[in-house]
Structures are given as structure tokens and as C-alpha cells.
Hints:
Chains A, B: Pfam families: LacI, Peripla_BP_3. By secondary structure, chain A is an alpha/beta fold.
Amino acid sequence: MEAKRATIKDVAEAAGVGVATVSRVLSGGSASPATRERVLAVAAQLDYRPSALGRNLRQRRTGGIGLLVPDLTDTFFGQLAEGVLACARSAGEPVVLGSTGDDPEQEAELVGMLLEQSVDRVIAVPSGGADTWGPAARAGMTVVFADRLPAERPGDAPSGPMPGSMSGSASGSTADLMLLDGVPPPPPSPPVLPTGVPAVLADDRAGIRTAVRYLRGLGHRRIAFLGGPGHDRRVAAFREAIGPAVDEDLVVFATGSRDSAYAAASGLFQSRPDLTAVLAGGNVLGEAAVLAARELDLRVPRDVSLVMYDDVPWAELCSPPLTVIAQPGRDIGYRACELVLRASGRRPRTVVLPTELIVRGSCGPLR
Amino acid sequence: MEAKRATIKDVAEAAGVGVATVSRVLSGGSASPATRERVLAVAAQLDYRPSALGRNLRQRRTGGIGLLVPDLTDTFFGQLAEGVLACARSAGEPVVLGSTGDDPEQEAELVGMLLEQSVDRVIAVPSGGADTWGPAARAGMTVVFADRLPAERPGDAPSGPMPGSMSGSASGSTADLMLLDGVPPPPPSPPVLPTGVPAVLADDRAGIRTAVRYLRGLGHRRIAFLGGPGHDRRVAAFREAIGPAVDEDLVVFATGSRDSAYAAASGLFQSRPDLTAVLAGGNVLGEAAVLAARELDLRVPRDVSLVMYDDVPWAELCSPPLTVIAQPGRDIGYRACELVLRASGRRPRTVVLPTELIVRGSCGPLR
DNA sequence: CGCCTCCATGGAAACGATTCCATCATGGTT
DNA sequence: AACCATGATGGAATCGTTTCCATGGAGGCG
């Protein structure tokens, strides 16, 4: 019953040829039309499928590409994953998935697992810093980052300050400074990005700037930022957009969990009842903000205006529908996959995809 | 620079022992304490990692487990995937992911890909029917279904009737009948489920029944069901709960896409303005229902009551917050993974996980 | 007519691991 | 003192594929 799979040897035997010939026929090598046809027929009849194991072992090449995301429950990463999957499918490459939970340790462990599987092309939304990704690259992995860049300093989790704590170093991390290209009042978009680091990112800077300007235009002055893990670049952009006089109490961080996000949002609203607008750095944060506001009887947008980074299907369902900074999650994944696949040539450049402010109903004029 | 990975041979050489000894030490075989220590030291120093390729080839065993879901953008499948990932990680097994888009053809293709990768344990939310999964099983795959069962009849997509069309055969599909165990007015929960089919399912029947009773209790009589691909069991449960006099026009199907869901919902509201309650078979359908209702100026719950199958984080964000039938997506994934991992012994039984009606604000009394 | 080239073809090595089996040393028993 | 059981150890086969290389035949050209 359990018919074990036919091997190339079986095919060769049945077709009366050598295994080498079968291999050549199947991988497009030269062969006489007669044998080619015969081999093909036999292979089809035996339902022969070459084993990726054998092939990969021989070629010392990997099967598949790895995909590491913080949390598939977050719609954005789901979109990103769908993009990667779509591209990988069209290339016929399997995708090995890992969820890091925004934990550098788990991430490192998963990288090890991929290494063991001989998966040497990886698309990652990084949680850890150089001490994870340095070794990975050194082990010969082709890594493309998506949505974020890893923290610069070894051992530095990119989320910066811990949950509930208010703000961090006054001028952003090393990575952020580098991102901003060292020009304090930099020219308008497109932003200058670190070269040599293959990555696909959304144009956070432009998105955030647009949102801040929009809020400013509505009269808001006390604008808060609600950040999560991996939002360093967004925070930096926020600081840049706000200008020199950033009210540090209005920059708050949460970890990846929904509870933490809610706590951060609620804490922010309670400690600073004078704020008039909030910019949430991701959809989980946005959700938390809506929830916290409702819990505290703050009406949106009457009492507080809200902009969420990330467009998700339910943003339209909220009442009022949420004004968002949309980023093309699916495209980010797709492009990252393209990059990692054709990384054979010279190293791929970083790609920046545009964001878009979608104005719905969660922002109103200052009153 | 590109230090290629150390092989077992390198370790053996460096430790001055044979490869067999290294293998034994590393996989817990017998060895003298002295050599064991030496080998371990050398292995650590060389940062040796056994190649899964070599191992799997030799053992003719698969690396990893496959996971096939319709769409990672759907939060529910994201939760399910997280569950699988959690369990797989703790077992040290890599997960190969595929997204089927609810398309039997893509699904079959992905199964082929997994076969090629020698991945012979699969967790699937099936889209195709027996003509996909029969061959898969025959090829020696251990398959555990999650959330759904495949259609019984070959070539029969489990979604039954096509989008927009109204209802199907008057008494559910063969699969559903089998599910109901052939007893037309069956005893209350727990439902009798098909044995021998390894699967992890939510107790749709109880969930739907509870929801229908709840709506009935509020006075609703014209209750509609909005179904999507793979919702056969839910439809069947709905029919059963409603009783013999099912208004077939109130049972509507959409395909997996959000557009289709919206179209179905909108069409339903417009063609049957007399309905007073809607039961959405999944979160995408629920989202569509909310959107369509708003578009048509139907207020929830004043004009129409709404229950959504699936609890998702944003259900609470809606206003009013959505009353839902919660199913443990993460647990379903986790259990399915457990099942597929310890499938070595006798065949695993089907597992049914409880659902829960979470009453929030989207249902009101008939007026 | 002979030689050289070219192409189709098959044998065999290699990839990196596990595992069977033979070998050898050791220590205990008769 | 001879023998046997036990345990550590290394060699070699094996898994399924690709690929190098040798072989042999056919055909073209000098």
C-alpha cells in the first residue's frame, strides 16, 4: 500500500538507460530525442519526483528560503508573509517559517535551525541585533531584511526602552542616526538609507512626516508617539518631524504583546491628559489606543485624534474609521523575496517602498 | 571569509576518531567518557552542526512538517499558524509553509512540493477534496486536518455552491451527513465526529447552535447565514439549528476574497431587507457584513443583529463591539501539530475543541 | 581511407550523515 | 591459563541525486 517513492534508479532501470541519462533528461541536458521521450514517459508513468534531499545534498545548495517574522497574528506580518509566499511559489522554492515573538533569543535559535536545514537564504523582520545577524552572514547566509533593520550595536534590542518606560536616549539610537544620514535637518524624501544592507523597507520617514504635518495642520501640538519593538526608525522619524522640542513624556514604548500595548496606551492617556493626538507605530498599538481611549471615555476624534501606522482591513470598521499610514505589506514581502532570490550577482541594494496617508475619520481639528 | 560549515568528517579528524564515533557521541550512543568529552569539545570549537540534509537522506525521514493554510492575512489562520509553530519549535521541527488561497489546484501543487521536499507530515486547512488528499495519503503522508475537513466527493470543492448563488442541496453534503453521524435529529453536544480522520476541529455545531438559540431568544426569526469556503460544517450546523424550515435565500456563500465577501453581504442585505439577524461564518465575512451594513445605513444592532464566527482582536474595536463565537485558533494549531508529531503509533483520533459565545454589543432584541 | 571531432551514454564519485558489522582490548569466569 | 562476554571503535555501505570522465559510435574532412 505504502508505495515508496520511485527513485531515479527505478526510472533508469525501467527505461533501460543509466541514471546519468535520466538526470540529464530531467534537468534539460542533452539527450537524443528517442531516449528523452522514453525516459519522460517512464518517469511520468512511475510518478517519479526527484528528491530535493538528494539534489540539495549533492549540490550543497539549500532547498528553500527562510522567513522569520515576529508574530503571524499581526495582520501586517501576515500580509508580508503572503507576499513572500507568492514570490517563492512562482520561483518554486519552499518557504521555512519561523515566528520569533520579537525575542532575539528565539530568533537566534531559529537562525540556527535554518542553518541546520541548509537554508541559506533568509528573509527576516529582525528582532535581534548584530550578534544574531553577524554570525548568520558569516555562516554564508544571504539575508534580506524586511520592514526593519537590525539594531546596530551588538546586544541592543531594537525596541530600545522597555515597556511603559518613557522615552530613551534623547537623540535616537546609533542606527537611527545612521539612517538619517547624519544631516540633522535633512532634505525632503526620498530618505537616504544605509547602503550595503539588503533590505526592503517602507518609507517610514515620509509617512510619519506626512502624518505629523497633517496633525499639525489640524492644530495639534501635543502629539504623542506610541511605539513597539522594531519601531526605532519610526520614532526617529517622529522626532525629526516634531522638531527639536520633543516632549519626551509623549514618546512611549510597549513590547510586542497586546497587553503591553494596552498598558502603554492607557498609561499615556492617563499621565498626559493634555495630549490631543496620538500616532500609533503599528496596528497592534493602534488597536490598543482605540481600546484605551474608549475605556477612558475619550472620544475619537473629538477628544483625541488618532493616526495608526499600518493599514489593516479592520481600520475601516472602527467608528470612526481610522486614519492610517498605509504601507504595502504584501509588496514588501514580495520584493524581499525577489531580492533574496536573485542575490547571486552583486549584493542587492536596499529598496524603499512608498507609504500613503489614508485620511478617514479618526482625526479632527483641535478644539 | 565564507567559512563553509564543518562536516562530521572534520570533527572526526580533529578529534582523532572515526566518523562513526562522532555520530554516536552526538546522537547519544555509547562511547567512553574520554572520547565523548573530546569529541564534544572539538565539535563545539568547530561550531559543528550536523546537516539535516545528510541525516534525512540517510534515514529516509523527512525534515520538518508542512503547514497549508488558505490565507495568512486572515487572523484566524495566523493564530492557527502560531500554534503550530509553537509546538513545532518545542519539538525542534522546522515548518514549511504554504498558502493555498482556498484554491484546490494550488493546494495540490503545494502538496507536490512538500512531497518533493520529503516532508511527509502535514497539517492542512484543506481546500481541495479527496482527489488531493487521497493521493497525498497514498504517498505515505501523515496528514492532520485543522479547522475543516476535506470534501468527501472527489472533485468537490468543500465550499459547495459558488459565490452569490443561493444555497445548495437541501440537506448538506455527504461529508456533513457523515459528520452528523447519520442521525437526523441528533442528540446534543458533543457531536459525533468521523473517526479515523485525524483532525482538530472547533465544535462548530455547538457554537452555531448556541448562537442561533441566542438570536432566537432575542426574538429573531429571519436569520441569515453568510458562509465562505470551508464553512460546510457551519452551514450544516446552521441548518440543523434553524430546523426544517430553512429559508434558502438566507443562506449565502462567498469565496475567500474580501471583495466577494462584501458582495455577498451587500447582496444579502439588499435582496432580503426583512432579515433581522446575520450569522457570519468567519471573520472576513463578519468584516464584510459590518461594512455592508454601514454602507446601506443599517444600524447594528438596531436594524440588524450580527454574530460573527471567530473572535479576533478587532471584534472588540467595532462599535458596537461584535458578539462572536470564539474558537481557539492557536490551540487548534498546537493540537494538530501534536497529533501529527506523535502519529507514529496507532492513528490519532479526531479532536474537537470547544467554542464559546462571547456576547458583546452587536445583537439586540427584535424591534 | 584514416583521423579527428562531436555527441549520446553509462559508470562512478561525491555530498554528509547514520548504522551495520567486524575488530580489538579488557576483564571476569571456569 | 584459556576462553568468553562486553564494550569501545573505525571502516564501509547506504540514502538519491548531480556531475565528471571515459567510452563508443557516427560522421565530416583532409
